[in-house]
Amino acid sequence: MPIQVRQGTPSDYPARERIFQGAFSAGLRPHIFPNGLTEADLIHNFSENLHGYKTNLSTSDTQAGQRIFVAYDTDTPADPSDLLFPEAWEHRAEYELSDEEKKVAKKIVGVAIWGLQPFARTQEQIDKEAAEEPPHAHAPGANGALLDAMDAAMTASKKKYIGLEPYLYLRVLAIDPAYQRRGVGSLLLDEGLKIADRCNVQAYLEATKVGRPLYARFGFEDREYMDFDVARYAPAAKDEPQHEFMVMIRPVGAKKIDGKA
Ligand SMILES: CC(C)(COP(=O)(O)OP(=O)(O)OC[C@H]1O[C@@H](n2cnc3c(N)ncnc32)[C@H](O)[C@@H]1OP(=O)(O)O)[C@@H](O)C(=O)NCCC(=O)NCCS
């Protein structure tokens, strides 16, 4: 299983959706998309991702924005049930996959999306950036109240634990279930944390229960459980075990706990 890591590109979006659907089939995702992911939701997600790619990509360690990495299996194609770009997507022609890209998309087994803020900012700068952000619409089938509540809780935690400091934020780490517990998540974490080390910044994330032990091994420390009442926004979650996210911070220069780094 030779796994390689490379930077993400828009042609990875179908693979990315496939992996999110597999990796997040439990947890909160079923409450975020209570009726499953429709074609309209996919079109929305692809368009948002493409917009983010065009407007918010960090291409160097001195530029704030998104850094995306994918892991792919050079040998064995993953399940060939990749979603292709939806027929009605207006950018379809622009991102129609070549046969070669389709083959590669089937080999993608993991995705990591990071956000880099390499310099300290003043509160005025942070407020100005937030005010200048274009309005964000939720996917048509998404539980918008739940997403807004999560977003508010995440923003409050970031404000509390990062404040004005520079940081690298792990927005999403998701591995194809067939490839979990084989070191793919660790490879993607290693790649991203190199940026934190080069930039001399702390790393920050909100961990699911399954992710937490892995992050602890990479030097992330628990801060506190993120506080929001899922069942209030998704009544179907009321009898489920609590959906908890642990806010974790990897201090500047932290090493792997097992000393193998
Ligand atoms: C959490 C997640 C990203 C981890 O990815 P992964 O590829 O399974 O991670 P790794 O294989 O590198 O490490 C996972 C565990 O397997 C162990 N492992 C790694 N390689 C292994 C191998 N060859 N054999 C056995 N175990 C192995 C690791 O030591 C680690 O153990 P730990 O959890 O006790 O620390 C993945 O499970 C996932 O996508 N989960 C669903 C989505 C999610 O919750 N994402 C996290 C959001 S914060």
From TrEMBL:
Domain of life: Eukaryota
Domain N-acetyltransferase: start-end pairs: 95-253
Family annotation (CDD domains): NAT_SF
Pfam family, one: Acetyltransf_7
InterPro entries (UniProt xref): Acyl_CoA_acyltransferase (IPR016181), GNAT_dom (IPR000182), Trichothecene_AcTrans (IPR052523)
A Gene Ontology molecular function term of the record: acyltransferase activity, transferring groups other than amino-acyl groups
Official protein name in the record: N-acetyltransferase domain-containing protein
